[in-house]
Amino acid sequence: MTALNGRRPAMASAPTARWTRWTRWFRRWPEWAPAAAMAWCAVYAAVEASREGKGTSLPFPLPAPYAAPAQLILASLAVVAAAACWATRRRLGRSGRMAVGTALILTTPVFALGMTVLPIHVVPLASGSGLESATGLAHALLSTVLTSCLVLVGLSYRRRLTGACPRCGFRHTGGHDAPLVHPGASTASRRTRRMAYLLVCGVLPWAGVKTIWTLGGDALGITAEKWQKSNSGGSELSKALASVGIDVTVLAAGLGFFLLAGLMYPWGQVFPRWTLFLSGRRVPRLLPLVPAWLTSIGLSAYGVFLLVYASLAALGVVPAPEPDPELGGTRSGTLWLAAFGGMAFGGLGIGLITAARSYSARTRAICATAGAWPKVVGGLSGLLRSYS
User: Which long-range contacts (CB under 8 A, 24 or more apart) does 196-201 make?
Assistant: First the structure.
C-alpha cells in the first residue's frame, strides 16, 4: 500500500456484524440529503411565516430585531432552496443546472448568517448564566441545521456534476456505500501552524484587559468595581472563576485554542494516551470539525464587523460608540474595547477556519471500493501536500 504524506493509511476493516443497516444508510447520505434539506426547508419556512403572521420579531443580541417582512423573505428563500434541492435529483439542461447552482449559492449564505450568533447563545448557557433569548437560540439552531443540509446537498451535487463520487469526491468505480479508507495521522504544515498561532495572538489584548478587571485593576477607563458590578448577575461558576482572575469569555477562548491545536496535530486524529479507554482509537472526523466550523463562522464575522466599525469610528466616518452606562469609561476606551473584541473574535475565528481547512484536507477519506486506490492515491497525496 502506498504511503500518504509519509504515513501508512489506516485501512478499513472488512464488513462485520457492526456494518448494520443504519451504517449503510448513513453512508448513502448523498441520496437522502436533498430530501432532508427539503423537509427542514419546510420547517424553517413554516416557523418564519408563523412569526410574521403573528407580528412577532426575532430579537438579536444587538438591539436590532428582525422586521416582520424580513421573516417572510426568509420563508420565501427557504421555499426557493427546497425547490433547488428537489431539482438536484433531476436531469437538467445547462440552464437548469445554472439555476440550481445559483439558488444554492445565494440562499446558503443567507441562512448561514443566521447561525453566526450561535456562540453568543452557547457561551452563556455553558457558563450557567442563563439563556440570552429563546427565540434567538431557536432561530440560530434552525439556521444551523438548514445551512448544514444545504452544504451537503451543494457538495454532493457539485461532485456529481464533475463525475466524482458524491460521497468522497474522488473518481472511482463501484458505489458510495462502502467503508471509508482514512489516511494516517499527520501534522499541519508549518505555514498553517504559523498563520493559526499568529491569528490567535489577537486574543491577548482582550484577555489581558478582562484579566485585569477580574483581578481588581482598572483598564480602558473602566474600574474593576464597575466591571464586577455589571457582571453580578452571572452564574456561580462565572463568579467562582472571576474570584481567581479568570473571565468566562477568556476561558471560552482557551477552549477554542485547544480545539485549534487539536485540528493541527496528530492527537486530533487519534485519541492520545490521556484519554484513557479511547487511547489509540481514531477520532471521528466530524467531532472536531463540526464545532470548529459552527463557531468559527460566527466569531470571524462578528470580529471583522467590530474591527471595521472601530476603524471607521476612529477615522470619524461613523459615530463613536457611547460608553455603557453601567460600566462608565470614555468613548476612546469603549472604542479600544471594541477593537480588542474584534481582534479576539476575528483572530480566533479565522484561525479556526485555517486549522479546520487543513484538518479537512489531511483527514479526507475515500470509499474502499475495488477500483478506488489505484486511481485516487496519487491525487490524495497531492491534496495533502497542497492544503496541509
Answer: 196/260, 196/264, 196/351, 196/354, 196/355, 197/351, 199/347, 199/348, 199/350, 199/351, 199/354, 200/257, 200/260, 200/347, 200/348, 200/351, 201/347
